[in-house]
Amino acid sequence: MRAMWTGAISFGLINIPVKLFSAVQDSRLDLDMLDARDHSNIKFKRVNEKTGREVPFDNIVKGYLVEDEYVVLDKEDFEAADAVKTKTIEIINFVKQSEIDSIYYEQPYYLEPQKSGEKAYALLRDALAASGKVGVTTFVLRNKEALAILKPYGKAIMLNKLRFEEEIRDTEELNVPATKSTAKEQAMATKLIDQLTEKFSIAKYKDTYTQKLLKTIKAKAKGKGPKKVHKMKIVHTKSDDLMEMLKASLQGKKKAS
């Protein structure tokens, strides 16, 4: 794995040199964009807006428009904005993870200690595990301030990026029902939830769509067309059918058992 960021965890007066690695990988098939006429690959180029010529990556800089003029920024400018946060994952405080709503979770990363920080890394990991709490931290990743938590994950410390409050849209924008379900409907729905409740195991869930798509691709490569499928129709359940549908769902679950 290639490190995405190097710096240090700041824990009180302790600095723990670490490297940051992505904790996830994409399970989607790597599909290329092709020209429908001759199946040539579609390529994207960075071009100069005025000349239309391609610009080498080394010649590309970043700038911010101020009064019709661009202020060009270099690496030193980004670091000067906050030199500490560009190189330090500073633990601000500790909280119970249960207090963080799942909507704020974004991307998980692994932190690996550099040799000089192995003992302090193990201390922080074990202290987090013993306390049952997570460390809230901020740092700068790819020229953007990131909010995150630190938590033990097996023998490693995981950094999980969080979204800031202002990044969450208000539900007031949605057209959701103000009416409430009846006590009988709630009781029946709760019964169905109880019937379908089991212990969560991530290993039980697989990306079956990608597997089926790959199977279709292999069949098509051999000249076999895809199986004919019936178009799915969305069934709209009427409000007065809810109780009957809940009862039928409960009966169906009993028969399946």
Topology:
Blueprint: E1 5-11, E2 14-22, E3 62-66, E4 69-73, H1 75-81, H2 83-87, E5 88-96, E6 105-113, H3 118-131, E7 133-141, E8 144-153, E9 156-162, H4 183-195, H5 208-221, H6 242-256
Parallel strand pairs: 1-5
Antiparallel strand pairs: 1-2, 2-6, 3-4, 5-7, 6-9, 7-8, 8-9
Tell me what the structure shows.
- The chain is of the alpha+beta class and 257 residues long.
- The chain contains six helices and nine strands.
- It has helices at residues 75-81, 83-87, 118-131, 183-195, 208-221, 242-256, and strands spanning 5-11, 14-22, 62-66, 69-73, 88-96, 105-113, 133-141, 144-153, 156-162.
- The strands form two sheets. The chain has a seven-stranded mixed beta barrel with strand order 1-2-6-9-8-7-5. It has a two-stranded antiparallel ribbon with strand order 3-4.
- Helix 4 (183-195) packs parallel to helix 6 (242-256).
- The two termini are 45 Å apart.
